[in-house]
Amino acid sequence: MLSPRKTAVAAAGAALATVPVAAATAQDNDTPTGPHPDALYTEAPPVAVPDGVEAAGMADRAHANVVRDGALNQRGERAHRRLVAENVQLAHKLARARDHRVPREHAEHVRTYTRPRLRAENRDLQHRVHKLAGSNAGGGASAGGAATPQLEAIASCESGGDPQSVGGGGAFRGKYQFTYGTWASVGGSGDPAAAPEAEQDKRARMLLSKSGTSPWPVCGQ
To answer: What pTM does this model have?
Structure first.
């Protein structure tokens, strides 16, 4: 039988022996149970880079797309220019029929229109021109100031048919590019380019009857 003193010493030793075991157990309990943080950041698989025939095919398709887009843009620009030219021509026809003048900035203004708007505007102008031409024919409009086909050809060559055209540094004016002298010689006064188109047609007919095509040595031939 152990003495009381030996019993106390043995109990103290047993208690000390349990301390490392408890510390180890606590350390094990502090260890995270989830996946290691490094496992969350894995590298993506490498992307396959085309080479050889496949790469050449992709380059060809890209080039074809660029060429196609450029061709579409060019066709669109040409179509827009045609619509603008048609609009300006119709506006001049309507103005002539009404004995009016087209504003100088008209062409620049309609160039800002989209193609759908230009088509709609042109259809409306065509309708108005045809309607007005029909009413003039029914009302027996006078042709005294109308231009003959010969004069229309001269005007087209001289000014593009624009009654407000000014050329030669200001020396040649109006639809038929009158000088101030030739304009005055057939009874005109003031600026030929400021006169109504019907009056310009009338004065051009008088000049053609008086002097032939000599006032238009290039466009009159």
So the answer is: 0.39
